[in-house]
Design a protein that fits this description.
Blueprint lengths: L35 H8 L1 H4 L4 E3 L5 E3 L9 E2 H10 L6 E5 H22 L5 E6 L6 H10 L6 E4 L2 H10 L6 E4 L5 H12 L3 E6 L3 H13 L4 E5 L24 H13 L6 E5 L5 E2 L2 H21 L5 E3 L3 E2 L18 H16 L8 E4 L2 H5 L3 E11 L16 H11 L6 H20 L5 H21 L8 H9 L2 E5 L3 H4 L1 H5 L6 E3 L9 E6 L8 E2 L12 E3 L9 E4 L6 H4 L10 E7 L5 E7 L4 H7 L4 H17 L5 H15 L8
Helix pairs in contact: 4-5, 4-11, 6-7, 7-8, 10-11, 13-14, 13-15, 14-15, 15-16, 21-22
């Protein structure tokens, strides 16, 4: 509830109770002219969906596969197919067509920019495995990207093993970032031995000695890159990845030490790649141009030093427009893919052409942009908690305290032109009533009545606030405090960790009834017993919204919600808060005949799975419970039949889904 304000009243005016309405709040009638175009605008589908999603005439959300615009597929149809295959909510749904389209778009846009600008170098796309490490995702990117020699970026031995066993084209790059021990280096050298273009990017000066030592041991000449610590700083959440205080990369002094060391060892010809990384999501194209321009100065001088550079790796940063605002806001971007590509190509040419330096092969590690739109978290709503008042019982003046009567007077005096004053009065008298309750002056039953009266006042004020041209911050906050709580069958910490950890916003909307006006404003709580287990920041064109519009629940309907653009990081960073495990996962493909192929299905964690993750032994637990039940039989507390039922329930639960099951 909103905070109280200081106010004094000199005299209590006894209200006319008969003239007061009951505590029922009138909900505005749903306008008959509500159409799906209004839902599209309300949820911003056309702003953030890249044309992949739409709304059918019946109000159901649809997927539109690239090249199949005339055959959209309803997501409810997909959900039905999942249920037939035993996959209940929540589900992480991946759409293979979108993954193909993203790979093709990225490579096609750079190819177009290179051709139109007469750029003399090539382009190589590289997917950072850390963005989504799931086997099916990485394998599909490698398969679809083979014709583009789409490579992989790795930051650990585990990821390097994935790259070595997944990539098919030897023209694809393997870019090794992060800290590297002896085994990491040895693995990369073996990849080079069999023909992969495996680059070791030197992040710290100490790595060079180890790489050269292991290369001598194996008699293999390594492919080397250096990561720059640019002075260019960027906007957005990941600004700390740039500038002098960035965590990774070589300073100019360290860079020259590496060059000198390689020259002394007559290995300067191994240095073929220059790398920088400004952050995962760069909203401002100007930052990108500035960084490329600065990196080119390093490139030119390193070539003059004798390094045969041939690759310029710009790292990640190609942003996703989560909120659809097309701005420099943290969760948006002020450029599109074509502008990103042409600006990079033209900036490199403008820098390298005057000194006559050959154009390098451009490399980008655009992981977030590639996979974010390809996955949707689907879950059902279990229940709703509202802050609607209830009708008043029959009231009598002589039985009520002064603070309660003052609340009734405030209710009867509500005026649109005095909403702030009415609000102040309601909070003041509510707080007076609560104090009276604490000292025993009013009963619990009267407190419940007074709270309901106050809630009625606040709801009626909230109905009038939209009519104000400039509502005060207090009134806006009050309206937000009255929003519903929709309880969803999912875990924020497992499936949407960035929403909790870094306040990432995602587009959130229902899958059905989009031909009806959503008359409720809500936040969405998850299943965890944690006050942070909620979605209370939503994608919005004017900046993150604190609520999302939803429909009232129908008793005979499974109300389904989708969280979009979740393909990057969310599946990898999740944790086991309250031991809610991985959700069910499904990958689908939409065919040319507009049918749905269920390509890949993976059941989510069972309870026994998550227990084993935290060092419990399910079989041992079952045996211990069996012993306890048997003891209860001997003590006469339960019958043998009851023992059997308990054991059955215990063991079935061990095999069950960690989420709510119907």
């Amino acid at each position: 509830m909103p905070e109280s304000t200081t106010k004094t009243k000199s005299k209590i005016k006894r209200p006319n109770l008969d003239a007061l309405k009951t505590g029922e709040v009138t909900i505005a009638d749903v306008p008959s002219d509500w159409v799906i175009e209004k839902s599209k605008d309300l949820y911003g589908i056309d702003r953030w969906s890249n044309g992949y999603f739409g709304i059918a005439p019946n109000g159901n959300l649809t997927i539109t596969a690239p090249g199949l615009a005339e055959h959209p597929i309803e997501l409810l149809e997909v959900v039905g197919g999942l249920k037939q295959r035993g996959l209940e909510m929540p589900v992480m749904l991946r759409i293979e067509n979108l993954l193909v389209d993203r790979v093709e778009q990225l490579n096609g846009a750079f190819s177009k920019a290179i051709s139109e600008s007469n750029y003399q170098g090539d382009y190589r796309s590289v997917f950072p495995i850390k963005v989504n490490q799931q086997n099916h995702v990485v394998a599909e990117i490698a398969r679809f990207g083979e014709k583009f020699a789409h490579g992989l970026e790795v930051g650990s031995k585990a990821e390097l093993l994935i790259a070595m066993s997944t990539l098919r084209s030897k023209d694809s790059l393997i870019v090794c970032n992060g800290y590297k021990d002896e085994e990491f280096v040895d693995l990369g050298l073996q990849a080079s031995r069999i023909g992969y273009q495996c680059f070791f990017v030197i992040e710290t000066p100490s790595e060079l000695g180890l790489i050269l030592e292991r290369a001598d041991h194996w008699k293999i000449k390594p492919l080397l890159g250096v990561r720059l610590k640019l002075s260019t700083e960027v906007d957005g959440h990941w600004s700390n990845d740039s500038g002098d205080r960035s965590l990774f990369g070589l300073s100019t002094t360290q860079l020259m030490d590496v060059v000198d060391h390689l020259r002394q060892r007559e290995l300067l010809d191994c240095l073929q790649l220059l790398h920088f990384h400004l952050g995962s999501q760069i909203p401002n194209i100007r930052n990108i141009r500035d960084a490329v321009s600065e990196a080119c100065r390093f490139y030119i001088d390193l070539v003059e030093e004798g390094a045969p550079l041939g690759y310029l790796d710009l790292g990640g940063g190609l942003a996703v427009d989560y909120d659809g605002s097309s701005s420099t806001a943290t969760h948006s971007r002020n450029y599109d893919l074509d502008e990103y590509c042409i600006d990079i190509v033209e900036t490199v040419m403008a820098s390298l052409d005057p000194p006559g330096v050959p154009h390098p092969t451009l490399v980008t590690e655009s992981g977030r942009w590639t996979v974010a739109p390809t996955s949707i978290l689907l879950f059902n709503v279990l229940s709703v908690s509202t802050f609607d008042p209830t009708p008043f019982p029959e009231l009598k003046n002589e039985e009520l305290s002064e603070s309660t009567l003052s609340l009734l007077e405030t209710l009867s005096a509500l005026k649109e032109r005095r909403l702030q004053e009415n609000y102040n009065d309601a909070i003041y008298f509510r707080d007076q009533m609560r104090m009276a309750f604490r000292v025993g002056e009013i009963s619990l039953r009267e407190r419940a009545l007074a709270e309901n009266i106050c809630l009625t006042i606040l709801n009626k004020i909230a109905e009038l606030v939209p009519k104000l041209k400039k509502p005060t911050a207090d009134l806006v906050k009050m309206c937000e405090s009255l929003s519903d709580i929709y309880y969803g069958n999912f875990s924020v910490f497992q499936s949407l960790p960035d929403a909790w950890a870094i306040e990432q916003v995602f587009p959130v909307m229902p899958l059905q009834r989009l031909n009806e006006k959503p008359t409720r404003s809500a936040i969405i709580a998850d299943l965890t017993c944690d006050c942070d287990g909620k979605l209370s920041r939503f994608a919005n064109e004017d900046g993150p919204a604190s609520t999302v519009p939803l429909h009232p629940l129908h008793p005979d309907e499974d109300y389904l919600i989708g969280v979009f653009l979740v393909g990057s990081y969310q599946e990898t960073l999740g944790d086991l808060h309250n031991l809610f495990g991985d959700t069910n996962v499904a990958s689908i493909r939409i065919t040319q005949e507009a049918s749905i192929e269920f390509i890949h299905e993976l059941e989510g964690d069972r309870i026994s799975d998550v227990l084993s993750y935290v060092e419990y032994q399910p079989q041992e637990m079952s045996n211990r419970f069996r012993t306890m039940a048997e003891t209860a039989v001997r003590d006469g507390a339960i019958t043998v039949a009851q023992r059997q039922e308990m054991l059955r329930l215990f063991n079935e639960s061990l095999r069950g889904y960690t989420y709510f099951e119907n």
